[in-house]
Amino acid sequence: MNPASRRWHFNDVQPLPGYHPVVGAVLAARGHDNQSASAFMQRDGLLHDPLLLPGMPDAVRTVSAAVNNGERIAVYGDYDADGVTACAMLVRAFRNRGVDCVPYIPNRMTEGYGLHGAALAELGECGVSCVITVDCGTSSVDVAQGRPSGMRLVVTDHHLPAAPDGEPRLAPADALVNPKLEGSLYPFDGLAGAGVAFKLVQALEKEGVLDSGAAAAALPLAALGTIADLMPLRGENRAIVQRGMAELSNVPGVRALCECAALPLALRASDVAFGVGPRINAAGRMEDAKLALDLCLADDPAAAHDLALQLDGQNRRRQLAVVEALAEAEEQVAMLDDDAAAIVVGAEHWPMGVVGLVAGRLVERYARPAFAVSLDPGEAKGSARSVPGVHIVRALDGAASTLIRYGGHVAAAGFSLQAQRFEEFRRAVEAAVAEQLDGAPRQRTFEVDAVLTASESTPVLCRELEALEPCGQGNPSPLLALRDARVLTTSAFGAERQHLRIVLGGADGVLEAIAFHKPGLEQHLPRGRRIDACFSVEMDSWQGQDRVRARLRDLRPAEAAAPVALAG
Q1: Angle at the Cα of 216 (from 52 to 191), degrees rounded to 5?
Q2: What is the tens place of the pLDDT at every residue in 495-534?
Q3: Burial of 75 by CB count in 10 Å (0-12 exposed, 13-18 middle, 19+ buried)?
Q4: What mean pLDDT value characterizes the chain?
Q5: What is the pTM of this model?
Q6: pLDDT per residue as tens digits for the range 314-335
Q7: How many CA atoms lie within 13 A of 337 on its CB side?
Q8: Looking at 437-441, 488-492, 564-568, which range is the least confident one?
Q9: Which tens digits make up the pLDDT trace of 199-212?
Q10: How many CA atoms lie less than 13 Å away from 305 in the CB half-sphere?
Q11: What is the pLDDT of residue 60?
């Protein structure tokens, strides 16, 4: 299989008046009129009534009874950044109220995703009589049914229910809070697991179960989890992130992580997505997410610093593991036909904590849904990432007979199976994906919001574009283009020299661009080559000077120039 073809689509609508021309162009390109743009640009978006969420009134009653009775409560999370931040958020809120509350995060390597009966039994033996899940549990029917007698169970989640036979499987809990449930009247269904946990805090504060200010204190971790889980930054998610980002670097663990990773304390959503989130995720991917949980719960700056150093080290090991696994995955992809509906790859020695990252990189390059599997002989575990038009959980529904468990979102999912059924799974999931694709071509499309000259790429422009923040999933950073630029210099950097710094010369100035994860690109960019570049811009401050740096998304030959062979 060869990399997918690339197409640039240029916005040709008139910019909205009253804004910087580039900002107005971006808003118009994304379908806004003057009224919707005004609402979008407001800095204090709407937070909906939490009691409108399905199951929330039952959750409040159940938790209220446990708190009033002085019972020990456990918060059962997940090992990714979404689950860890949601777990830490609730534990903090309950402990501030004086509630006896303990966290539980399953180990990715030994337990895997989801709610586990052995864990509930262990918690019961430790005196826990009420368990609140975050970011998991919706389809844990058997575990919920078999929980210790008398144990209250509140499930808060945002994953789609598994429906192998077309009927959703829902855990029989005392309360099940999930905006994705059929028949939900909640105005927004795109909340992260941390977002749903935040709504529980909000509801408990509203009903007097938690102290006044609990929801405001929970917002920074809710924002972190929302960004790290790649939830769409629109609607209520945008409001949560806007409000939470302002205080995020005041969380001791996050501040320590920023200092260790040389991230700015004035964090942007992209800093969280590419800097903070991956380091928190690294704990669960490489060893045990308890380290990341301890960081999010830390109040002592010295202790937080020590934990942050450990996480930063784990993140470096995770980066190396991804490079090695991806190289092997590419060898398997090279054996596939160009018209293959899905990419299904696996190896026994791949760390299960990196398969989701491998799948994501393959989707970016080949524009087909990817399923990457760590083929542990005991129980193989995999991650899937999708493309527009393919509902990845429904694709797994089509292969459910080969799976032990699975769950996720429209665009990303996790699953496990017996390693000896890997080929059977491959055939089943390829057929399920092919049915949804219905012959759609493999193509990566870049939606260019505006064309600039090099001299227009200024700090002033960056500051104007900040009005569109937070940018990320569902509200991508504006994609800009520079036409007919010449390559002036290139230099590789990074632990494996896997990134490339490129200085481009336009007719009226120069622009520095960074290409991440493109180790082979330098050989295709000799000095003087004429190219078009599309990129997002960000401010780079050095020794008190502000300058613009472009985060490169794609290159193509300038008119009448020789083709550019992008490495990935």
Answers
A1: 45
A2: 778 889 999 988 888 888 998 878 788 888 899 999 999 9
A3: buried
A4: 90
A5: 0.84
A6: 888 888 899 999 999 999 999 9
A7: 4
A8: 564-568
A9: 999 999 999 999 99
A10: 5
A11: 98
- In single-letter form, the type of residue at position 299 comes to D
Element at 347 (helix H, strand E): strand 343-347
Cα gap 54→189, rounded to integer Å: 11
Among 384, 392, 418, 390, CA closest to 403: 418
Q: Return the residue matching tokens 């795109």.
A: 190
Burial class (CB in 10 A: 0-12, 13-18, 19+), 547: middle
Domains and CATH numbers, the chain: 5-42+445-557 (2.40.50.460), 50-246 (3.90.1640.30), 249-317 (no CATH), 336-441 (3.10.310.30)
N-to-C CA span, the chain: 13
- At a CB cut-off of 8 Å and minimum separation 6, what does 546 contact? 459, 462, 539, 540
Please say if the pLDDT value at position 567 is more than 80: no
Instruction: For 126-184, give the secondary structure using H, E and C.
Output: CCEEEEEEECCCCCCHHHHHCCCCCCEEEEECCCECCCCCCCCCCCCCCEEECCCCCCC
| CA angle at 455 for the pair 451 and 459, rounded to the nearest 5° | 95
Distance CA 47, CA 198 (A): 11
Backbone angles phi, psi at 291, to 5 degrees: -60, -45
Q: Which residues pair with 384 in a beta bridge?
A: 371, 413
Tokens of 308: 């942050």
- CA separation for the pair 227, 232 (Å, rounded): 8
What gap in Å lies between CA 114 and CA 134, rounded to an integer? 10
Which residues 6+ apart lie within 8 Å of 160 measured at CB?
A: 138, 180, 393, 407, 408, 409, 410
